[in-house]
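Run folding on both entries below.
>entry_1
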Amino acid sequence: MNKICVLFPVYNRLDYIRETLPALCNSNNLSSFDLHIIQDGPRSQSDEIKTTQVENYIQQFISSNVYFTPRPHNLGLGQNLIQSKFELFATYDKIIQIEEDIIVAPYAIDLISKLYDKHKKAHDTLVASISCFGSAPYPKKVAKLSKLINRVEWRFYCLDKPTWKKIKVEVAQYNQLFLHSHGNDIPYKTRDHRKIRRYFSDILGTNVGDAFPTGQDACMDILIKTNKIPIFTVAVNHSRDIGIRGEHTKSPKYISNIENTTLDLFNPEVLYKKLSIPL
């Protein structure tokens, strides 16, 4: 068994997975990783039809290092991700998480692992992230390959076990307080978002404001920052977001970022050499 896990959480969106899973399974050096596809359970009978379609489609990709785990009950995205990390970190040293609506470049998994290994030498713990939303247009991309930004995008990122050990107690507490009640998932729309923001404000020691996100990724972001763990995101895109987003996705800046996304621009050998320059 490999010591690096790729976590690919799915639910009932077959239209996404038909595009994203083949791209993921076409990744360079995939045999060096274990891919865990973890499907959340259905909420209703109508959902069960869709989740069964997804489950049937996934079967063709199962192999010696590609594992599929269907949840018997619905946990919700936040709980599913948190529980998956608790389960997988019992075995693996680091997890690379990719959401189901992200198409990755063939070299991207290998790249994020190499970036992690490079910066692990300089830091005790690290979250390395490959952003889906880099804004550099084509002519500037090659010049910006070696640039890292001190932030993280929680759609496609690497998390190591030492970092998880530092934050897992608080993540579990957040999950227990806000994501489920009496063993049942609390849907996002019915959560007490005001109470969650007060909880985050107490952790940070400052008011986060009414627009602050309240999901599990926001919780991890806060805990990583308060523990002063370094985070990095490359400045250019190595993946594409095909998901349906909220109102902010209609902004000219967001649309420009998505239009500038290129998956097959870089020769991996040139890319790795460029990124070997001290950053």
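>entry_2
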Amino acid sequence: MIKEKNYMEPKPAKIIRISQLGEYEKLFRLELKSGKNIGHKPLQFIKVSIPLIGEAPISVCNWQDGFFEIAVRKVGDVTNKIHTMKINETVGIGGPLGNGFPIDEMRGKDLLIIAGGIGLFPARSLIHYALMRRENFGRIIILFGTKSFDERYFPEELLNWQYRDDMELHQTLDKSDMRWDGNVGLITAIIPPVQINAENTCAVIVGPPIMYRFVLPELRKKNIPDAQILMSFERRMECGAGKCGRCQINGPKITWYTCKDGPVISYADVLRYELKEAI
């Protein structure tokens, strides 16, 4: 019990940089006041707490020695308050929490990362992790789809990824735009042309849950093993400990708690445990 309490107890972190990502989204770079690293694994999340306001689960979208980053969309009391905060102000950080991507099982494989909308935020943690350890992975293929040109978050990074010779980036917009000369249409339209080695590919899906329902059939057409299709349900996260019940996905065999068991789950486990609510 003492270990769990210490683990969940908020640790003070200072805001050291703020960037505007979109109309309702900001990127915050933070450092723990202890000077320690956050000890995060891609797709784990943290609880951000603000005294007298509350706390919210937020995915870490990048981390390096000495700092980590979170991308925050204004959607409630805590995130609205975070958006008003300035450099050098302090928030509480609990975690990291949950189970992220099974990195050991992914080493040596090609990565097919499919991100929709703000799903790019948590997916970015895996992308940065893989690029910093480039020798540990095969091909890195990113498919990114979003509603509009103005919702192409991290445009400078997207441009950099587009011109790197050790990775591939394919993008699409739901709506056409005079500033855009790339693909227009749903993200499912850019999956079929991508050539992969199915047995050596680990596919990652991060985005709105409705997207999974249409992306999964396209990946199965490519014969990627179900155990190598990984989905994130970070949007279901709530208390961070699986105690409030709001994150649960019910099946006839088990109840799967996003905060505790996830947020990452393989499609093989969704089928095995008959978690129809997941998709």
